[in-house]
Design brief:
Elements: H1 2-12, E1 16-19, H2 33-38, H3 48-53, H4 64-79, H5 91-102, H6 107-113, E2 124-128, H7 138-150, E3 153-157, H8 193-206
Parallel strand pairs: 1-2, 2-3
Helix pairs in contact: 4-5, 4-7, 5-7
Length: 207
C-alpha cells in the first residue's frame, strides 16, 4: 500500500506527466553529423545561438526563454553525454545521437518543460515500467537525459526490478532505490475515486 501511495502522490501533481507505455519516443535514423558540425564553436562545443539560428531548429514557436534553455541544455548534454556508447561508437557518436533526438522532442515533453516555474514548481516525469508495457529504448533514455539536464524530476518505477535505463545511461547519472519485494506482472493501479476527488479538491483550493 505504501508503494502505491508514493506512486500516486508523485503522479497526482498537476505538473506531473505520467508514462505507462513504452517506448514513449521515436528514434530518428537521419544523419545529423553535418548539422551537428555546423553548430559547433571553436572549442568543439555546441554554440547555443548558432543552434537556434540553424535551419533544423524545431522550437521557434516557443517563448524565447524556453528556446534559450533548450539550446543551452542540448549544448551541455552533448558536451557531457552520460549515454553509453554502442559497440564501435565513439563519444562523439553518442553526442550526435543525443543531439539528433533532442532536436525532435515529443510535444508532450515540450509541454512538460514549459510548466517549469523556477521559483515555485518543478515538473515531474513519472514512468511506470513493467515487463508487460513495452521496452524502454535508447531514444527514451536520450529524452530522460535531456529532461534531467533541464531540471525535471524523474521517477522511474520498475516493480520487477529489471534493468532498463542501465542499458543506456551511465550509472553516475541516476540513483537506484530497491523495494523490499520485487513484483512481476504488476499492472498499474488507478487511485481510488475518493483519493482522486481529494486531490482535485485540494488542488483547486490551492489555486
Amino acid at each position: 500500500k505504501e508503494y502505491w501511495n508514493r506512486l500516486h502522490t508523485a503522479a497526482d501533481y498537476q505538473e506531473t506527466h505520467m508514462i505507462r507505455s513504452f517506448p514513449f519516443t521515436e528514434e530518428l535514423k537521419a544523419n545529423y553529423q553535418y548539422h551537428y558540425t555546423q553548430v559547433l564553436n571553436e572549442e568543439g562545443a555546441i554554440d547555443a545561438d548558432r543552434l537556434k539560428r540553424s535551419n533544423i531548429w524545431q522550437y521557434k514557436h516557443l517563448p524565447s526563454g524556453v528556446q534559450n534553455a533548450i539550446a543551452n541544455v542540448i549544448s551541455d548534454m552533448c558536451r557531457n553525454p552520460g549515454l553509453k556508447a554502442l559497440p564501435g561508437e565513439q563519444a562523439r557518436d553518442a553526442a550526435i545521437y543525443l543531439f539528433r533526438q533532442a532536436m525532435n522532442l515529443p510535444a508532450s515533453l515540450l509541454q512538460l518543460i514549459q510548466t517549469f516555474d523556477y521559483a515555485q514548481t518543478v515538473p515531474k516525469l513519472v514512468l511506470y515500467h513493467t515487463e508487460q508495457n513495452g521496452e524502454l529504448t535508447r531514444s527514451d533514455a536520450a529524452a530522460l537525459l535531456f529532461l534531467n539536464k533541464f531540471g525535471v524530476d524523474i521517477i522511474l518505477y520498475n516493480p520487477p526490478g529489471h534493468q532498463d535505463i542501465e542499458h543506456y545511461i551511465e550509472e553516475s547519472q541516476f540513483d537506484v532505490h530497491w523495494l523490499e519485494d520485487m513484483v512481476f506482472r504488476q499492472e498499474y493501479k488507478e487511485p481510488s475515486l475518493v483519493r482522486k476527488l481529494f486531490r482535485t479538491i485540494t488542488q483547486k483550493q490551492g489555486e
